[in-house]
Recover the amino acids of this structure.
């Protein structure tokens, strides 16, 4: 009996160095799920064009994310790892889907509204971003899409568009499910807001040790004096500590916070040690792969071939269904 695995798809934009939020909110899940799903994991370099206009930087960041994917343990024998732009038909599907996408659906997207609220002048790419993302998801007939909480709405947009397509043209596209890791739904940054490369509040496990230390030491705390008991549940230090420590270590740390006589400076030092310990092997591999670009590029090329084969199958059905072929 055929034992077909369900399909997982996800991507990360290569728009800057990746941080703990990206790792615990999204990427770690790809690694955990790679044995159970037929996985397609890509680097969303077309999406990153909405923010990066420097060609050299875009290319460098793209290789960097591929390196990170491999360092964190994605196995290229199991996972199709590729650059978004190597599957050209995704742009063709984007156009087709955009003819079915109500303006209002895109206007309601939080990520678009947030950027407008920050005063970023929107271009068409930023507005149409979720349609490209829908094409990414639907072209591989993905069953599940593991993402951080902030991307859930975009997966729902992909579902809405797929429903509209299927109602109009027949049952061609598969409805995807977002998968959100609830215990690490939002990783806080050093200022206590959501960690994000755009807020200058990130800690990246792929930086040099000195930079990681500087960021950890900058974590904002309240002004409670050393002797006073502290509430772990209001503390960014504790929230980050929980991500990189064992159950017992977390309980110990909780006790230290609650009993008083334990300062934030000491807690930050322990957090730093735990981050470096947690990422020890990953960092080692990362720095090795930095010197092995040819290997990283060859993995992407291989992944693109398989991704294209799957994408072209869907496109054949789509083009037939809509009356283009
Ligand atoms: P950023 O906010 O730094 O620009 P992206 O929007 O590129 O990050 O997010 C890449 C992936 O990482 C997405 O799936 C997103 O949901 C996840 N992610 C980013 N920041 C966080 C965070 N602070 N907590 C949890 N997940 C996050
Ligand atoms: N928008 C996602 C992000 O910023 C990246 C992305 C692009 C993506 N296409 C996707 C994620 C398809 C999941 C599925 O992180």
């Amino acid at each position: 009996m055929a034992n077909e695995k369900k399909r997982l798809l996800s991507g990360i934009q290569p728009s800057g160095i990746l941080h703990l939020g990206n790792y615990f909110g999204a990427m770690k899940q790809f690694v955990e799920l790679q044995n159970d799903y037929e996985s397609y994991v890509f680097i969303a370099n077309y999406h990153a064009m909405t923010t990066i206009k420097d060609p050299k930087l875009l290319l460098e960041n793209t290789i960097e994310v591929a390196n990170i994917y491999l360092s964190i343990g994605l196995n290229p024998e199991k996972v199709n790892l590729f650059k978004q732009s190597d599957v050209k038909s995704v742009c063709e599907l984007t156009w087709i889907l955009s003819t079915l996408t109500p303006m209002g659906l895109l206007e309601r997207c939080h990520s678009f509204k947030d950027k407008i609220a920050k005063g970023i002048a929107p271009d068409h790419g930023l507005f149409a971003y979720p349609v490209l993302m829908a094409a990414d998801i639907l072209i591989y007939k993905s069953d599940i899409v593991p993402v951080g909480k902030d991307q859930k709405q975009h997966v729902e947009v992909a579902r809405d568009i797929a429903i509209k397509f299927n109602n109009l043209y027949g049952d061609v596209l598969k409805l995807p499910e977002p998968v959100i890791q609830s215990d690490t739904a939002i990783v806080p940054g050093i200022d206590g807001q959501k960690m994000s490369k755009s807020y200058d509040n990130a800690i990246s496990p792929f930086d040099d040790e000195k930079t990681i230390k500087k960021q950890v030491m900058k974590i904002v705390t309240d002004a409670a004096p050393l002797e006073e008991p502290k509430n772990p549940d209001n503390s960014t230090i504790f929230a980050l500590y929980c991500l990189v420590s064992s159950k017992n270590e977390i309980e110990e740390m909780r006790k230290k916070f609650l009993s008083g006589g334990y300062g934030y400076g000491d807690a930050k030092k322990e957090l730093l040690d735990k981050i470096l310990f947690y990422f020890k092997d990953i960092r080692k591999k990362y720095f090795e792969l930095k010197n092995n670009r040819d290997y990283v590029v060859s993995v992407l090329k291989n992944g693109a071939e398989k991704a294209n084969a799957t994408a072209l199958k869907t496109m054949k059905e789509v083009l037939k269904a809509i009356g283009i072929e």
In short: The first strand starts at residue 7 and ends at 12. The chain has two domains: 7-186+293-322, 206-278. Residues 9-13, 44, 47, 133, 136-137, 145, 147, 151, 154 surround tryptophan (ligand 2) (CB under 6 Å).
